[in-house]
């Protein structure tokens, strides 16, 4: 199995950029994955945090980033690969989960760092992997047999370039094992 290596000293957080969920292509059995425009990938000037703060669909992530005191980390040099859920993904969690996490910095940090891999891993790289080590220390499973799934989450938008990494938008919040 191929694995990505993590830098143990990194403490990163997930965030994401603008996405719209993409419906499966009617002519294909594979779910469609929207890719960021090529021009956006050429010379991004915004960090992962800048992109998230600029999009109202990610207000839950921004609040979590602030509560976990990880703004500076994910605004840093990186590079980071972020598998990032939208507000809608957070809304799928059982009632009270988000509030509980926001009140428990240690658990919140564990959840957030489970969405981040060190290095810049583009969609073309992700499809050749079966798992990746997160900066939180646990592995995530990657399945590219029918679209791209990260554990039970589907990648709905790939390759959103930031100056300090790349964002792949997912439709479900990943919860670390244990």
Describe the model.
This protein is of the alpha+beta class and 178 residues long. It contains eight helices and eight strands. Strands 1, 2, 3, 4, 5, 6, 7 and 8 form an eight-stranded mixed sheet that branches. The longest helix is centred in the middle third of the chain and has 9 residues, at 59-67. It is globular and about 35 Å long.
Determine Rg (CA atoms, Å): 15 Å
Return the structural class.
alpha+beta
Strand fraction band? 15-25%
* pLDDT < 50 runs, ≥5 residues: 1-33, 37-41
SSE map:
Elements: E1 34-35, H1 38-42, H2 48-53, H3 59-67, H4 71-75, E2 80-85, H5 87-91, H6 97-103, H7 105-113, E3 116-118, H8 123-126, E4 131-133, E5 139-143, E6 149-150, E7 153-162, E8 165-170
Parallel strand pairs: 1-7, 2-8
Antiparallel strand pairs: 2-3, 4-5, 5-6, 6-7, 7-8
Helix pairs in contact: 3-6
Could you give a quick summary of the protein structure above?
The chain is an alpha+beta fold.
Sum up the structure in keywords.
alpha+beta; 8-stranded mixed β-sheet; 28% helix; 21% strand; single chain; 8 strands; 178 residues; disordered N terminus
